[in-house]
Amino acid sequence: METSIFLSKAWGLLITVSAFAFLVNEKARKNLMKVMEDESFMLLSGYMALVLGILTMLFHNVWTSDWRGVITLFGYLAFIKGVVRLAFPEVTINIVRSMEKKKGTTPLLFLVLAIGVYLVYKGFSS
């Protein structure tokens, strides 16, 4: 349970701060979208996501229907994201370009912010 609490705090803070920052700072969000079109950035961020995903998968493979399952899901999603970015960076770049055109990031950021706040609450209230 200590691992779950630690990861809930870590994932929750990472997700909450990131989503909040990109919601309040549109310029930073646009700059990130531009940077994400660079294949070198995509590869570097792919390695980072892969490491974060692998560590979460190894230390927290808990499939439950509560907040602990959310942590595990984020670990697996980070792993998949890392693999896709490393193996197929152009696919992710195309996804970024289509999201940029559709302006569909704001609702997604609100959803991510809500999940982050939920994990922070669970982590610090346990």
Description:
- With 126 residues, the chain is mainly alpha-helical.
- The protein has one domain (2-120).
- Helices cover 87% and strands 0% of the residues.
- The chain is built from 6 helices and no strands.
- The chain has helices spanning 2-24, 26-35, 39-59, 67-87, 89-102, 105-125.
- The longest helix has 23 residues, at 2-24.
- The radius of gyration is 15 Å and the shape is globular.
- It starts with a helix and ends with a helix.
- The mean pLDDT is 93.
Compact description:
With 126 residues, the protein is mostly helical. It has helices at 2-24, 26-35, 39-59, 67-87, 89-102, 105-125.
Please tag this protein with its features.
87% helix; 126 residues; 0% strand
Biggest β-sheet description:
none
Estimated share of beta-strand residues = under 5%
Q: Which structural class do you get from the secondary structure elements?
A: mainly alpha
Computed CA radius of gyration, to the nearest angstrom? 15 Å
Q: Write down the secondary-structure element order.
A: HHHHHH
The coarse silhouette is globular
Uncertain segments: none
**Count, helices:** 6
User: For the terminal residues, how far apart are their CA atoms?
Assistant: 10 Å
